[in-house]
Amino acid sequence: MMGFLFNQKECQELQYLLRRELEELLLDLGDKRIDGMIRMAMEERYTTVFKMYGRLASPTELAKYVRNKTSHTVH
Asked: What pLDDT, in 10s, does the model give residues 39-69?
């Protein structure tokens, strides 16, 4: 485990970066053409980034990036 000290501006920048990454991952995970190992790796990455964002964001902000359970099932 690592610890970091960020000032307010750095926290805002980190939140911005994490939000953009979550948006990209959600968009890509919605693409039905992506499957198999790539999808699994993207889902793992989404989980990691979501947990990181959860440490900085309010519950209201975090709720915007919660995945719909039915949207990530592989057919």
From this structure: 999 999 999 999 999 999 999 999 999 997 6
The model's pTM is 0.83
d(Cα 22, Cα 6) in Å, to the nearest integer?
A: 21
Nearest Cα to Cα of residue 42 among 15, 67, 12: 67
H helix intervals, 1-75: 8-29, 36-54, 59-63
Q: 32: exposed, middle or buried (C-beta count within 10 Å: 0-12, 13-18, 19+)?
A: exposed
Q: What is the largest distance, in Å, between two alpha-carbon atoms of the chain?
A: 45
Residue position matching structure tokens 């948006």: 23
